[in-house]
Design goal:
CATH architecture of one domain: 3-Layer(aba) Sandwich
Order of helices and strands: HEHEHEEHEHHEHHHEE
Number of strands: 8
Helix content: 25-40%
CATH topology of one domain: Rossmann fold
Number of helices: 9
Strand content: 25-35%
CATH class of one domain: Alpha Beta
Radius of gyration: 18 Å
Shape: globular
Amino acid sequence: MFEPQLVIDFLNPAPGAHVLDLATHHGDTAIALAEVGCVVTAIDSSEKSIDKCNEILREKNISSVTALVMDAENLSFGETKFDGATCRMAMHHFDDVPRALRQIANILKENAPVIIGDAISPDNRALGDFLMKIGRLRDSTFKTLFTVDDWKKLLEENGLNLVDYKLEKDTRDATRWLERSPLSDEQKQRIHQAFVDSTQEAKDYLQAKIVDGKIVEFTDDKILIKAVKL
């Protein structure tokens, strides 16, 4: 998974830049942005996540992050415009990604960048469908994955211009990956079985290591996008 520092390096914010961190969860990216001198507004649709984020901010004595409960698809900032925006490993949970991108474009200053880090689908749709199946078995809020070409089209159609992107391989320890979600033993077994029953093409693409009928390691693809407001 992309670490916050990779997002910050791609954003390259000026000291004092006002940055919006979308779907912040517990604020990892927002806190990292604050530590390099940004003023940050961090939002998440989950009140529980924002409560935890604020708790961490108090513990770390960080005053340059404001954490708010807000849906990324329904931003409400009036005339406020941001110097940049970030969204790390969250858009595959969004109900309406095009709407979210339009909302982001609306709150950015002219030529201000947004950095989006997310999982991607390979061009082979059967493989993409398998990845989405696995994602949804692990997390019911998992919605969809896009190919690189999908992302280019989505950005262009919703007020943003792709400037650069990077692709990286992400090797997962499957045990830890499963433990990060509140899954029952039965749900975990369904995921293990899905890997076991997958095509050889899927196993090869994911470099899946299966031992005694259980997935122990696999590798998928991530994209880090830099786009600016048109």
